[in-house]
Protein backbone atom coordinates (compact mmCIF):
# COMPACT_ATOMS: atom_id res chain seq x y z
CA UNK A 1 0.00 0.00 0.00
CA UNK A 2 1.43 3.35 -1.04
CA UNK A 3 1.05 6.24 1.39
CA UNK A 4 0.04 9.52 -0.23
CA UNK A 5 1.50 12.60 1.41
CA UNK A 6 -0.58 15.79 1.30
CA UNK A 7 0.73 18.70 -0.73
CA UNK A 8 2.80 21.05 1.44
CA UNK A 9 0.96 24.28 2.13
CA UNK A 10 2.47 27.73 2.34
CA UNK A 11 0.00 30.16 3.83
CA UNK A 12 0.73 33.53 2.40
CA UNK A 13 -1.99 35.41 4.22
CA UNK A 14 -4.00 35.17 7.42
CA UNK A 15 -7.17 36.91 8.50
CA UNK A 16 -9.36 37.03 11.58
CA UNK A 17 -12.85 35.58 11.54
CA UNK A 18 -15.31 36.12 14.38
CA UNK A 19 -18.56 34.29 14.88
CA UNK A 20 -20.65 36.79 16.80
CA UNK A 21 -22.70 35.98 19.94
CA UNK A 22 -26.11 35.46 18.32
CA UNK A 23 -24.74 32.92 15.80
CA UNK A 24 -22.37 30.89 18.02
CA UNK A 25 -24.95 28.08 18.11
CA UNK A 26 -24.28 27.62 14.36
CA UNK A 27 -20.48 27.36 14.89
CA UNK A 28 -20.14 23.81 13.55
CA UNK A 29 -22.11 24.63 10.40
CA UNK A 30 -20.12 27.84 9.79
CA UNK A 31 -16.76 26.11 10.37
CA UNK A 32 -17.77 23.46 7.83
CA UNK A 33 -18.54 26.18 5.24
CA UNK A 34 -15.20 27.88 5.99
CA UNK A 35 -13.27 24.66 5.45
CA UNK A 36 -15.20 23.83 2.26
CA UNK A 37 -14.25 27.30 0.97
CA UNK A 38 -10.55 26.44 1.03
CA UNK A 39 -9.51 28.02 4.32
CA UNK A 40 -7.40 26.36 6.96
CA UNK A 41 -8.18 27.22 10.56
CA UNK A 42 -4.82 27.91 12.21
CA UNK A 43 -6.22 28.66 15.68
CA UNK A 44 -9.68 28.85 17.19
CA UNK A 45 -10.97 29.90 20.58
CA UNK A 46 -14.26 30.69 22.24
CA UNK A 47 -14.20 33.83 24.36
CA UNK A 48 -16.49 36.27 26.14
CA UNK A 49 -15.47 39.87 25.51
CA UNK A 50 -16.16 42.59 28.08
CA UNK A 51 -17.71 45.87 26.88
CA UNK A 52 -14.27 47.50 27.35
CA UNK A 53 -12.57 44.86 25.20
CA UNK A 54 -15.25 45.31 22.53
CA UNK A 55 -14.68 49.07 22.63
CA UNK A 56 -10.94 48.54 22.16
CA UNK A 57 -11.42 45.99 19.38
CA UNK A 58 -13.82 48.25 17.47
CA UNK A 59 -11.93 51.48 18.28
CA UNK A 60 -12.01 52.49 14.59
CA UNK A 61 -15.81 52.65 14.85
CA UNK A 62 -15.72 54.92 17.93
CA UNK A 63 -17.90 58.00 17.57
CA UNK A 64 -20.34 56.41 15.14
CA UNK A 65 -24.00 56.34 16.13
CA UNK A 66 -24.15 52.53 16.40
CA UNK A 67 -20.95 52.16 18.47
CA UNK A 68 -22.59 51.73 21.93
CA UNK A 69 -25.01 49.13 20.52
CA UNK A 70 -22.12 47.32 18.81
CA UNK A 71 -20.11 47.11 22.05
CA UNK A 72 -23.19 45.91 23.97
CA UNK A 73 -24.06 43.33 21.28
CA UNK A 74 -20.52 41.94 21.02
CA UNK A 75 -20.25 41.56 24.81
CA UNK A 76 -23.72 39.99 25.16
CA UNK A 77 -22.43 36.41 24.92
CA UNK A 78 -19.54 34.24 23.81
CA UNK A 79 -17.92 34.65 20.39
CA UNK A 80 -15.66 32.33 18.44
CA UNK A 81 -12.43 33.80 17.09
CA UNK A 82 -10.47 32.03 14.36
CA UNK A 83 -7.27 32.67 12.45
CA UNK A 84 -7.97 31.68 8.85
CA UNK A 85 -5.21 31.08 6.32
CA UNK A 86 -5.06 30.68 2.56
CA UNK A 87 -3.91 32.55 -0.51
CA UNK A 88 -5.51 36.02 -0.44
CA UNK A 89 -7.28 35.15 2.83
CA UNK A 90 -8.50 38.68 3.60
CA UNK A 91 -10.22 39.25 0.26
CA UNK A 92 -11.64 35.71 0.00
CA UNK A 93 -13.03 35.95 3.55
CA UNK A 94 -14.63 39.35 2.81
CA UNK A 95 -16.15 37.85 -0.34
CA UNK A 96 -17.51 34.86 1.57
CA UNK A 97 -18.96 37.19 4.26
CA UNK A 98 -20.74 39.49 1.83
CA UNK A 99 -21.92 43.04 2.61
CA UNK A 100 -21.94 44.10 6.27
CA UNK A 101 -25.67 44.88 6.19
CA UNK A 102 -27.36 41.47 6.21
CA UNK A 103 -30.56 42.83 4.66
CA UNK A 104 -28.60 44.17 1.67
CA UNK A 105 -26.55 40.96 1.59
CA UNK A 106 -29.73 38.88 1.15
CA UNK A 107 -30.68 41.02 -1.85
CA UNK A 108 -27.26 41.26 -3.54
CA UNK A 109 -25.25 38.27 -2.23
CA UNK A 110 -27.85 35.66 -1.16
CA UNK A 111 -25.27 32.87 -0.66
CA UNK A 112 -22.95 34.94 1.54
CA UNK A 113 -22.54 34.08 5.22
CA UNK A 114 -24.05 37.37 6.39
CA UNK A 115 -27.09 36.85 4.17
CA UNK A 116 -27.55 33.39 5.65
CA UNK A 117 -26.75 34.06 9.33
CA UNK A 118 -27.21 37.79 9.87
CA UNK A 119 -30.40 39.62 10.74
CA UNK A 120 -29.58 43.30 10.12
CA UNK A 121 -26.65 45.73 9.81
CA UNK A 122 -25.57 45.43 13.45
CA UNK A 123 -26.33 41.74 13.97
CA UNK A 124 -24.64 40.50 10.82
CA UNK A 125 -23.41 37.24 12.36
CA UNK A 126 -19.73 37.38 11.51
CA UNK A 127 -16.75 39.70 11.43
CA UNK A 128 -13.86 39.82 9.03
CA UNK A 129 -10.74 41.95 8.79
CA UNK A 130 -10.89 44.63 6.10
CA UNK A 131 -7.16 44.63 5.25
CA UNK A 132 -3.94 42.75 5.92
CA UNK A 133 -2.83 45.34 8.47
CA UNK A 134 -6.16 45.23 10.33
CA UNK A 135 -6.01 41.41 10.22
CA UNK A 136 -2.61 41.49 11.94
CA UNK A 137 -3.87 43.92 14.59
CA UNK A 138 -7.09 41.97 15.19
CA UNK A 139 -5.33 38.59 15.34
CA UNK A 140 -2.91 39.98 17.94
CA UNK A 141 -5.89 41.32 19.91
CA UNK A 142 -7.80 38.02 19.94
CA UNK A 143 -4.73 35.74 20.15
CA UNK A 144 -2.16 37.71 22.19
CA UNK A 145 0.37 34.85 22.28
CA UNK A 146 0.42 34.22 18.52
CA UNK A 147 3.56 34.92 16.52
CA UNK A 148 2.79 36.50 13.17
CA UNK A 149 5.45 36.51 10.53
CA UNK A 150 5.37 39.67 8.45
CA UNK A 151 4.36 38.91 4.88
CA UNK A 152 6.95 40.36 2.53
CA UNK A 153 5.48 41.91 -0.59
CA UNK A 154 6.77 43.67 -3.66
CA UNK A 155 10.46 44.50 -3.58
CA UNK A 156 10.89 43.07 -0.06
CA UNK A 157 9.61 39.69 -1.30
CA UNK A 158 11.90 39.75 -4.35
CA UNK A 159 14.87 40.70 -2.15
CA UNK A 160 14.13 37.84 0.25
CA UNK A 161 13.83 35.32 -2.59
CA UNK A 162 17.03 36.54 -4.25
CA UNK A 163 19.00 36.60 -1.00
CA UNK A 164 17.78 33.40 0.71
CA UNK A 165 15.74 31.08 -1.50
CA UNK A 166 17.33 31.29 -4.95
CA UNK A 167 20.94 30.63 -3.79
CA UNK A 168 19.82 27.60 -1.78
CA UNK A 169 17.82 26.20 -4.68
CA UNK A 170 20.66 26.83 -7.11
CA UNK A 171 23.22 25.09 -4.87
CA UNK A 172 20.92 22.12 -4.26
CA UNK A 173 19.97 21.64 -7.90
CA UNK A 174 23.60 22.04 -9.02
CA UNK A 175 24.70 19.36 -6.53
CA UNK A 176 21.89 17.11 -7.74
CA UNK A 177 22.93 17.51 -11.39
CA UNK A 178 26.59 16.75 -10.58
CA UNK A 179 25.82 13.62 -8.51
CA UNK A 180 23.01 12.20 -10.67
CA UNK A 181 21.76 9.97 -7.83
CA UNK A 182 19.58 6.90 -8.41
CA UNK A 183 16.77 8.44 -6.35
CA UNK A 184 16.97 12.22 -6.80
CA UNK A 185 13.98 12.86 -4.56
CA UNK A 186 15.56 11.15 -1.54
CA UNK A 187 18.90 12.85 -2.25
CA UNK A 188 17.21 16.26 -2.46
CA UNK A 189 15.46 15.67 0.86
CA UNK A 190 18.75 14.54 2.47
CA UNK A 191 20.60 17.53 1.02
Can you tell me about this structure?
This protein is elongated. The model has no long low-confidence stretch (mean pLDDT 87). The chain has helices spanning 27-36, 51-57, 67-74, 89-97, 102-108, 113-117, 132-142, 154-179, 184-190, and strands at residues 13-19, 40-47, 79-86, 126-128. The longest helix is centred in the last third of the chain and has 26 residues, at 154-179. It has a four-stranded antiparallel β-sheet with strand order 2-3-1-4. It folds into two domains: 14-142, 2-Layer Sandwich (Alpha-Beta Plaits), CATH 3.30.70.141; 154-190. It has 191 residues and is of the alpha+beta class. Helix 2 (51-57) packs across helix 3.
Name the descriptors:
191 residues, alpha+beta, Alpha-Beta Plaits, 4 strands, 47% helix
Break the fold down into its secondary structure elements and pairings:
Layout: E1 13-19, H1 27-36, E2 40-47, H2 51-57, H3 67-74, E3 79-86, H4 89-97, H5 102-108, H6 113-117, E4 126-128, H7 132-142, H8 154-179, H9 184-190
Antiparallel strand pairs: 1-3, 1-4, 2-3
Helix pairs in contact: 2-3
GO cellular component, one term: cilium
Protein name: NDK5 kinase
Organism: Penelope pileata
